[in-house]
């Protein structure tokens, strides 16, 4: 049970790398006027998978910690940054669902979406760093 969360979050991160690279291409096209291809449908599909995995994984992390040790926040910074992450994931998801149907240019909303997700991505990198430490201390 303890392994479900780390495995899900690592899978989400790997998918998110690809989704972010696609999004950066869209950013370059939209804001920097550079010629770039953007796989709209692919970004939406894999973006949803990555963001929902992050959300489900986060809830599972807390749930499993509670079930196993009878308490949360045992992992310190890993817990705190996890709590900081969910609003960014949520904003990325809500704006993504609004943007998913192509209907004219919405550069402001797209930038808001991209920024929220980029912050979530950087925080996920930090979570991997502290998560590996949690695996070493609590699981192995
Ligand atoms: C988006 C990335 C992640 C988020 C938002 C996240 C969030 C959380 C949260 C909120 C907890 C509960 C901690 C507590 O109550 O003290 C937790 C537990 C834990 N996390 Fe993460 N985490 C992420 C990624 C990772 C990764 C990549 C690993 C390992 C490589 C990892 C390893 C662990 C471990 C071992 C626990 C203890 C409970 C369990 O195994 O389910 N986490 N995480
Ligand atoms: C890890 C998750 C995600 C990341 C890192 C990400 C990142 C980005 C970035 C950087 C952009 C470019 C923003 C700009 O041009 O200013 C973008 C655009 C876009 N994203 Fe995402 N995104 C993610 C998830 C999603 C999801 C879940 C959806 C849909 C439900 C979505 C739909 C879109 C759409 C439709 C655009 C193009 C918007 C436009 O140009 O009008 N994204 N994304």
From TrEMBL:
Domain of life of the source: Bacteria
Membrane-spanning ranges: 6-25, 46-65, 77-99, 111-129
UniProt keyword terms in alphabetical order: Membrane, Transmembrane, Transmembrane helix
Protein name: Uncharacterized protein
Native organism taxonomy: Bacteria, Pseudomonadati, Thermodesulfobacteriota, Desulfovibrionia, Desulfovibrionales
